[in-house]
Design goal:
The chain has helices at about 1-25, 25-45, 45-50, 65-75, 125-135, and strands at about 50-55, 80-85, 90-95, 105, 115. By secondary structure, the chain is of the alpha+beta class. Strand 1 (about 50-55), helix 4 and strand 2 (about 80-85) form a beta-alpha-beta unit. The relative contact order is 0.09.
């Protein structure tokens, strides 16, 4: 238990330090770094060969992911974004149908855009994977 408490305290301190560093950066510098990171991601061979990409929708004080999301759809890849379950550590990665689909998302109490809790239409990124794992690794009853 003491180790878990120490880890939580270290994470909290690190997050605080990162928030201070981000606040110290100007808007132009944040944009510059976002563009550089986007170019690196988009140019990476693993990204280029991937057909399904999971990515977060950025907050104003984070690296901006809009350029990457636009590229995902421009190249016909599938895009998955997180949906956090309230009062839990559970997160699903749900499919976006287009970059414009972002405007239909719900704003949470943390000011995060995500599919609503009652959105059951979107594909979950691991749904097929779970089915495949179940078929290959869980013995069937006769």
């Amino acid at each position: 238990m003491a180790a878990a408490a120490a880890l939580r305290a270290a994470k909290r301190a690190l997050r605080g330090e990162l928030r201070q560093r981000l606040r110290a950066l100007g808007a132009a510098e944040k944009q510059r770094q976002s563009r550089l990171l986007s170019r690196k991601v988009i140019g990476h061979p693993k990204y280029q060969e991937s057909k399904r990409i999971a990515i977060f929708l950025s907050m104003p004080d984070e690296i901006q992911t809009e350029e990457i999301i636009k590229d995902i759809f421009k190249h016909g890849k599938e895009c998955f974004i997180p949906r956090y379950k309230p009062h839990s550590n559970h997160m699903d990665m749900l499919k976006l149908s287009s970059a414009e689909d972002i405007s239909s998302l719900t704003l949470t109490s943390w000011n995060i855009l995500q599919p609503s809790d009652d959105d059951s239409v979107r594909e979950e990124a691991l749904a097929g994977e779970k089915r495949c794992l179940r078929e290959h690794f869980i013995p069937r009853r006769s």
